[in-house]
């Protein structure tokens, strides 16, 4: 399957390292804003074609599918352009700046009969399957707690007066979009739509959010999501039930899952999985195309939309506005 890639940052490198594990994947074309970067990246991975114009790449007939790893605010525009040229789209998370954009993207996928999937890797990993399969062992679930707090490598530059992409709200970036989404998406997959949302956060002078928390209410349980790009945390995430607690180590890519029962016993649920965790999302995406399916049964359009609706409401409550919201 002939792939194009939009974006040449570090996540694109990780994606292509993982793609080596996926049978039939072939990198054919690379887009970058500068010819120099495009050619350098293409040479590194053996891609035959480079572009500095996305429209030309989409119209070239050289690619069947594309992985979009550009800044968040470009996801909708670039995805729709590619889908309108009959190209299948795997779009890095978060799939869009807001729910309104995502609805337009989902419509474009349906209109053109192509696969469109958000590249949320965590919910496709074997260890997330272990979470789903063993959830009934907890009995009645009463709380979901997801924590992803990681001091950004770019925060020191921000404090020096620079404006790196990670803290630039004009790009639809910040801690909620970059890290908080990893706590929200699995919640949506496991428990669906909440009844109520209460959010708080810390806005930096740039207008981006440095950290935040969201409390979500369900009929008989609650959920707490904590995220930060300006502090670290070593807390595991948890699902607490009346029979015991499931500890999830690494909510963005679970690498260990265990249940600690009320009687003091423990059960290790961890499954073997590749260190190249993005391979699972690539394999899912390619499999959908080959099977002629319209969307992933796990990373569905409905779940991606609900995740963005939750983030939209959280941003509304803390006063976090992106330029993309006003278009």
Outline the structure in words.
The protein is an alpha/beta fold. It has two domains: 2-120 and 279-293, Rossmann fold (3-Layer(aba) Sandwich); 123-274, 2-Layer Sandwich (Dihydrodipicolinate Reductase, domain 2), CATH 3.30.360. Helices cover 34% and strands 24% of the residues. An eight-stranded mixed β-sheet has the order 8-9-10-7-11-12-13-14, covered by helices on one side. A six-stranded parallel β-sheet has the order 3-2-1-4-5-6, sandwiched between helices. Strand 2 (26-31), helix 2 (35-45) and strand 3 form a beta-alpha-beta unit. Helix 4 (75-83) runs parallel beside helix 5.
Main sheet makeup: 8 strands, mixed
Structural class: alpha/beta
The name of the CATH superfamily of the largest domain reads Dihydrodipicolinate Reductase, domain 2
Distance between the termini: 35 Å
Task: Characterize the overall form.
Answer: globular
Furnish the topology, listing elements before pairings.
Elements: E1 2-6, H1 10-19, E2 26-31, H2 35-45, E3 49-51, H3 54-58, E4 65-68, H4 75-83, E5 88-92, H5 99-112, E6 116-119, H6 126-134, E7 141-149, H7 155-159, H8 175-191, E8 196-203, E9 209-217, E10 222-228, E11 237-241, E12 244-249, E13 256-261, E14 266-268, H9 279-291, H10 301-318
Parallel strand pairs: 1-2, 1-4, 2-3, 4-5, 5-6, 7-10
Antiparallel strand pairs: 7-11, 8-9, 9-10, 11-12, 12-13, 13-14
Helix pairs in contact: 1-9, 4-5, 5-10, 8-10
